[in-house]
Every structure is written in structure tokens, then in C-alpha cells.
Write a structure and sequence with these properties.
Layout: E1 2-9, H1 13-24, E2 29-32, E3 49-50, H2 61-80, E4 84-85, E5 89-93, H3 99-111, E6 118-121, H4 122-128, E7 136-140, E8 144-146, H5 148-161, E9 165-167, E10 174-178, E11 181-185, E12 190-198, H6 204-210, E13 219-228, E14 239-241, E15 254-257, E16 263-266, E17 270-271, H7 289-295, E18 304-314, E19 326-329, E20 336-340, H8 346-361
Parallel strand pairs: 1-2, 1-12, 2-9, 5-14, 12-20
Antiparallel strand pairs: 3-8, 4-8, 5-7, 6-7, 10-11, 11-12, 13-16, 13-17, 13-18, 15-16, 19-20
Helix pairs in contact: 1-5, 1-8, 2-8
Length: 362
């Protein structure tokens, strides 16, 4: 039976960043991933936005880890050549009634330590985004985009360079207590880990149960995307967002250029029953016209194409507006470190989450 200091369950950006930080700290680390490749679920099914950190309550993990993680992520991308761009973001107020909400976001972002936020008028918006209609906006020059798939591969490679062992196609089947830690059973082998990090994303609640940890529920929330037709991609220059949904489950259907040249429109927010339900009863393309025209009034149905979808691993039930990241020692089984409920801004925060996980383990 193989013995390791730490086993990480899940090879999304959270698990890979945690494994890398632990290996750099001198621990022996193995990552178990049920898919044949890393990052196949939430990590690569999102807008690829590097968030600044103005949306989240001051003092929350989402706020602090986003602000710290953004700085770490930009430095990581520059060091290892991960394609990214500081394209900036406008959060627009469509009318005077929404200006107060923009001002509240500005105050929250400032409290969270977000740099260079600026309240701007319609003239600024017109110069930066001539096709966007707005009475005013919050401009965040620190917001950007990243190629999520390259980020996943680079986190894996740099982790392996530090000694991380990656086991793809390895599903956790069960776990048993042991005087030396936790015995983990897979289809091929059994291993003994002194500590287990639960970074299983959509399946973190199931994995926590296997590990004898806390009971909680992950709610899959599907986000669907359309995209602008190639001939219309020049209508926007950077990220353009509406005000976030008041119930707290989404930042709103936004317009997001990608590193690859696409311009995504989305995501929507819809709770679903299954954790693998990416396609059932998809929103028709017509459903994207109105939210797109809120930001780009001249867009028509002919300018849109259906695109992909992703699933958020939410700790918040449909009637709960906000639940923070769960990054801490498990309260039932202290040999488990939870890194669960890592939805947006999880991509931005991944390196900061990884560092916090390493601190908790060490």
C-alpha cells in the first residue's frame, strides 16, 4: 500500500493549485482525478475571467482570496507564459436608477482592496465601448481574461515538476480510517494518506461523505452561453457586465471576449438536478437576445450563435443569496481539509486557495 503525506481529490484548478503549493512546501502529494484529463468540469467551462474582487462581502473568503489570487494569477501567467490579457471591465448602469447600485459596488470593491476602480460617465463608456449603451459605469482596469485550459495544464506541469503525482482516470470508491491517516480505495489500488484535501468540485459533498467528513450539499447550477457571430465580434473591446442579480446567484449575462477570439454571452443561472446535466432542456437562442440587447442594443438574433455550458458547484441553495467558499479543516474528520463550493471567483482565486489549503495542512 502506497503512503503519501497528502492525497488531493480532484484535478480542477483548486486541486491542482493546492497540490502544487503542498509539493513546493515539501510534502509528498498525489492527485486523484476521475477524468482522463485535468480540469474537465467547472475549471474549463466558464468565462475565463480574472475577477478584480468588488462583488463579494468584505472579509469573506471570496473577497480576500479573489483579490490575493488575482495578483498571484497575473504573476503566474506572466512567469509561465499562460495566455492572458488585462482587458478591463465595465459594469454598466442602464439608467439613473441603477447608478446608486454602481456606487455601492465601487464602495464594496474599495473596501475589499481592489485597485484603480473608477466611476465613469456615459462619455467614458462611449469612447471605450461605442456600441454599449449606459448612463454610467464602474470601470475595473484590473479585470482580465485567461486561457483556462492552458492554465490547467500549466498548474499540472509545474506541480509535477515540484513532485506531484497525477493519477488520471482514478475514481475514489471509498475510504476507511487507519492509525496512519485515511485509506483510500480506487479501482486499481489502495493508498494511505496522512491528510486528504477534498477539491472534488461538483462531487465534493459525495467525497466528504466517503471520507467520514461533514455532511453538506453541492447544488449544480447550470450556466449556458451564446456567442457573437464572427462578423460581430468587433462590437466590443473588453468585458461588459450588467449589475449582478439581486438574488446573488449570478453576476448576470455578460459579454466576455476570450483569448481565442470568441465573444461569449452568458452565463445564465439555472439550478438542475444532475451534476452532469450540461445539455438537457437548453435555453433556445432566442432567450439570449434580450439580455444581450441590454448591453448591445443593435444585436439581433441573426448575430448570435449557441455555445457551450458549464455547471457551478454551489453551496447556496436556490433560496439562499450567498454562501462563502468552504476552505478549512473538516469539523468532523480533522484529517480532511475541505476546499468545497469553489464557484466564481474560483478560477481567479485558485492560487490563493491553494496556498491557504497548504497552510491548513502544514
Amino acid at each position: 500500500m502506497e503512503r503519501v503525506d497528502v492525497a488531493v481529490i480532484g484535478a480542477g484548478v483548486t486541486g491542482l493549485a493546492s497540490a502544487r503549493a503542498l509539493a513546493l512546501g515539501g510534502r509528498s502529494v498525489v492527485v486523484l482525478e476521475r477524468h482522463q484529463r485535468p480540469g474537465q468540469d467547472t475549471s474549463t467551462h466558464n468565462s475565463g475571467v480574472i475577477h478584480a474582487g468588488m462583488y463579494y462581502p468584505p472579509g469573506s473568503l471570496k473577497a480576500t482570496l479573489c483579490v490575493e489570487g488575482r495578483r498571484l494569477l497575473y504573476a503566474f501567467c506572466e512567469r509561465y507564459g499562460v495566455p492572458h490579457e488585462r482587458c478591463g471591465k465595465l459594469i454598466v448602469a442602464r439608467n439613473d436608477a441603477e447608478v446608486a447600485e454602481i456606487e455601492a459596488l465601487f464602495a464594496r470593491g474599495t473596501a475589499n482592496g481592489v485597485e484603480d476602480l473608477e466611476l465613469v460617465d456615459s462619455g467614458f463608456v462611449s469612447l471605450r465601448e461605442p456600441h454599449v449603451r449606459a448612463s454610467a459605469a464602474l470601470f475595473s482596469p484590473a479585470t482580465g481574461i485567461v486561457d483556462a485550459e492552458t492554465l490547467v495544464r500549466t498548474l499540472l506541469k509545474t506541480g509535477q515538476d515540484a513532485g506531484v503525482i497525477f493519477l488520471p482516470g482514478t475514481r475514489l470508491l471509498g475510504a476507511d480510517p487507519d492509525p496512519g491517516g485515511i485509506r483510500l480505495r480506487t479501482e486499481r489500488e489502495t493508498m494511505l494518506a496522512a491528510t486528504v484535501v477534498n477539491a472534488a468540485g461538483l462531487y465534493a459533498d459525495d467525497v466528504s461523505g466517503m471520507l467520514g467528513g461533514e455532511r453538506f450539499t453541492i447544488y449544480p447550477c447550470r450556466g449556458e452561453y451564446a456567442e457573437l457571430a464572427p462578423a460581430k465580434r468587433s462590437l466590443v473591446n473588453g468585458l461588459v457586465y450588467p449589475l449582478p442579480h439581486r438574488q446573488g446567484h449570478s453576476l448576470g449575462v455578460h459579454i466576455a471576449p476570450s483569448i481565442g477570439g470568441h465573444v461569449w454571452i452568458g452565463p445564465t443561472a439555472r439550478y438542475v438536478e444532475r451534476k452532469d446535466d450540461y445539455e438537457n432542456d437548453r435555453l433556445p437562442l432566442e432567450g439570449f437576445v434580450e439580455p444581450t440587447r441590454v448591453l448591445l442594443p443593435e444585436v439581433t438574433l441573426a448575430d448570435l450563435r449557441l455555445s457551450g455550458s458549464g455547471l457551478r458547484a454551489k453551496l447556496a441553495a436556490p433560496d439562499v443569496p450567498f454562501v462563502d467558499f468552504m476552505v478549512r479543516r473538516d469539523r468532523v474528520n480533522p484529517l480532511v481539509v475541505q476546499a468545497a463550493g469553489i464557484e466564481s471567483p474560483g478560477l481567479t482565486s485558485c492560487l490563493a486557495v491553494g496556498n491557504l489549503v497548504a497552510e491548513l495542512v502544514m
